[in-house]
Design brief:
Blueprint (H helix, E strand, L loop, with lengths): L20 H11 L4 E4 L11 H7 L4 E6 L14 H7 L2 H5 L14 H23 L3 E6 H11 L13 H7 L5 E3 L6 E3 L27 H5 L1
Parallel strand pairs: 1-2, 2-3
Antiparallel strand pairs: 4-5
Helix pairs in contact: 3-6, 5-6
């Protein structure tokens, strides 16, 4: 059997079929020990996994949702990813021209912004919950991240003349690489550069095969 690899270290990879009563029971059982539920799938509301349903099962849950375009209106259920959000927001025209569009040099753009904004939103919700109680919903849109960045303003290309290419800077940097074992062999990765007196960010496990874990926090603790 050929396994696909879950690309992120530190995570477990469990399958959950919401069409099966047994899997739904395991899901809601695991939810009782969770603080945050994050999801980028569409139409889970139709399977009973709406933020209201989550909050009813686990009061205090933070429901974080990510979509490409929007949560309401005619684009709400359109599937998409980073490059599509960058395109519809006008970046490829700004980088090139209407008759010769050009993707951004960094390629991945909205994904990173959405991750930072989503994490900030979840942290703000957790802080408010600690003070006031309640359950909260955090919604982030890739397209909206692009629109927000354009509102902030673009750099003048002439101002960047003479600057060194980012790839050259990275190639010369002395990166603090780390290593971790996984079912696929040793994985080399770039660890967190955040330094805290009492916390050393690290991974407990490497990437895992998809579906190789049980839908339970017990497998996370193992």
């Amino acid at each position: 059997m050929n396994w696909r690899m879950e690309p992120d270290s530190g995570k477990l990879a469990a399958h959950c079929d919401f069409g099966l009563e047994s899997d739904r029971e395991k899901f809601f059982a695991a939810l009782q020990d969770a603080d945050v539920f994050t999801c980028s799938y569409l139409n889970l509301d139709e399977r009973g996994i709406s933020p209201k349903r989550l909050a009813a099962s686990k009061p205090g849950i933070i429901a974080h949702e990510l979509r490409c375009f929007d949560f309401e209106g005619e684009w709400a259920n359109f599937r998409g990813f980073d490059m599509m959000a960058v395109t519809v927001s006008g970046y490829v025209d700004a980088e090139g021209a209407t008759d010769a569009p050009l993707m951004l040099l960094q390629v991945i753009f909205a994904d990173y912004l959405a991750a930072y904004v989503g994490a900030a939103g979840v942290a703000a919700a957790l802080l408010r919950r600690s003070q006031e109680g309640g359950s909260y919903q955090v919604r982030v849109s890739l397209a909206r991240m692009c629109m927000w960045a354009r509102d902030v303003g673009l750099l003048d290309g002439d101002a960047l003349e003479g600057s060194r290419p980012f790839a050259d800077v990275v190639a010369e940097a002395d990166l603090p690489l780390a290593h971790i074992d996984s079912p696929f062999g040793e994985i080399t990765y770039l660890p967190s550069v955040i330094d805290m007196p009492d916390i050393k960010p690290r991974f407990e496990r490497g990437p895992q095969p998809l579906g190789s874990s049980e839908l339970s926090w017990d497998s996370f603790k193992a």
